[in-house]
Amino acid sequence: MKMIKQMACAALAAAVAVGITGCGSSGDYSKPKVAEGTVLALASRSGTDTSLAPVLKKYKMDGGWTSEDNLKQMPAEMKDVVKELELDKTDCKWMVLTVGDVSAAVQGKDAPDVAIAFATTLSLDKAVAACEKKLKDDKDAGKPEFKKETVAGVSAYSINSKEFKVGEKTVVPFVASLDGQLIIITSSKAVLEKQIALYRDGKGASADFGTFALGANDAIRVKAVKVGENVKKSIPDQEMLKGLTSFLPDGDKLVLGLGSLDLALSASADGKDVKLDLAVETASDAEATKLVELAKGSLTPLTMMVKDAKDDGMKLAAGVLRSVKVEGKGKVASLSAACPADDLIKFVSEQKKNLK
Q1: Which pLDDT score, from 0 to 100, does residue 200 have?
Q2: pTM as predicted
Q3: Would you report the helix, strand and coil content of the chain in percent, each value rounded to 5?
Q4: For 205, which DSSP code?
Q5: What are the beta bridge partners of residue 111?
Q6: Quick check: 235 pLDDT over 50?
Q7: How far apart are CA 271 and CA 217, in angstroms?
Q8: How far apart are CA 351 and CA 356, in angstroms?
Q9: CA 21 to CA 66: how far, in whole Å?
Q10: In the predicted model, is pLDDT for residue 190 greater than 60?
Q11: CA-CA distance, 125 to 131, in Å (whole number)?
Q12: H runs (alpha helix) in the chain
């Protein structure tokens, strides 16, 4: 728990930008980008920047960190941070998380290449100062320390702690701001150099993620590539996958043959529905058919379980399950589902009130 607390405080220097509601530039910060070597990317934007804006406003779910409703619930020290960093005047257009080869991390040998980029006007220097202020009275010898450095011609901070480890290797995260418009947190100096080249110089983009982008009404977009290949690299002992065959013939072979996975959580153009779309690339048409049959077989009992639901949450789940469509087209198995946006946002709003 101590390490988690310290990591959270260190990440405050940039991670607060996730909840923000929302200078000249030499780079392109208009959209998320993905560097070479990435195997997983997740991009998101606030729902208020999609067709869901009216229904979010209706249920007071459009305020982020700085809405009047949320400010009332914040501890005094968090209100001070909002005021100090001027979060109510700060914009955050989108966020993207990218992860490189995870095989060494799964085996506990080394951290993967990780980068989080926020298109935000948050002042990094102010955020670091706020974090250092929070850490000032922490007597723990392993607390994170910020050190100002220059990386690829950009002013940056390294975040140092002897407790940031994967196996026996100490990890030194870096954080930098590009032109006051993009804050980037990375798992190492080398990853930060790649991110700077990507956004500032337009170099080193991944061909595997060439079409990866947030659609007009996408709130979240996730893509993974070479899934089976990475599973094989991460788990050399293939016997561990044999358990899959207990509910799906040759299930281990199906997993090892997976290519890309693409998921989008979005709103319909008219803002009436929240949609989920998932596409999985398999090794062959036959494998796609197997995956479709497995999904359909799993949906039937789930739908029966919530058929007579009385609870609002379970009623929503029942409606979503009834909307599910699963199909195969060539080597790709796809699933789509939808939920009325008004019902979903109302339910989430009520659950939020119950947590007060």
Answers
A1: 94
A2: 0.85
A3: 40, 25, 35
A4: B
A5: none
A6: yes
A7: 9
A8: 9
A9: 7
A10: yes
A11: 10
A12: 2-15, 53-58, 68-73, 76-84, 103-106, 124-135, 189-200, 227-234, 251-256, 285-305, 312-323, 341-354
pLDDT: is 219 or 243 the higher one? 219
Taking alpha carbons only, the member of 153, 149, 144 closest to residue 171 is 144
Q: Which pLDDT band holds residue 154 (cuts at 50, 70, 90)?
A: very high
Amino acid at 84: E
Q: Tell the residue number behind the tokens 């939020």, with chain if given.
A: 352
- 186/202 Cα distance (integer angstroms): 18
Polymer length in residues for the chain: 356
Q: Where are the alpha helices (DSSP H) in 152-273?
A: 189-200, 227-234, 251-256
Burial bucket for residue 161 (CB in 10 Å: 0-12, 13-18, 19+): buried
Place of tokens 């690299």: 233
Helix (H, G, I), strand (E, B) or coil at 145: strand
42-80 pLDDT, tens digit per residue, is: 999 989 899 999 999 998 887 655 455 566 666 776 767
The single-letter DSSP state of residue 309 is -
Average pLDDT of the residues in 304-323? 89
Tokens linked to 124:
């990094």
Residue 70 to residues 21, 47, 87, 121: CA-CA distances in angstroms?
12, 17, 13, 21
Q: Where are the beta strands (DSSP E) in 108-198?
A: 114-120, 145-151, 154-160, 165-166, 169-170, 174-178, 182-186
The Cβ of residue 352 has, within 10 Å, a number of other Cβ atoms equal to 15
Q: Which residues have C-beta within 8 Å of that of residue 203, sequence separation ≥ 6?
A: 197
In the chain, the amino acid numbered 121 is T
Which is more confident, 247 or 286?
Answer: 286
> Would you tell me how many other CB atoms lie within 10 Å of the CB of residue 194?
22
Neighbours of 217 (CB within 10 A): 20
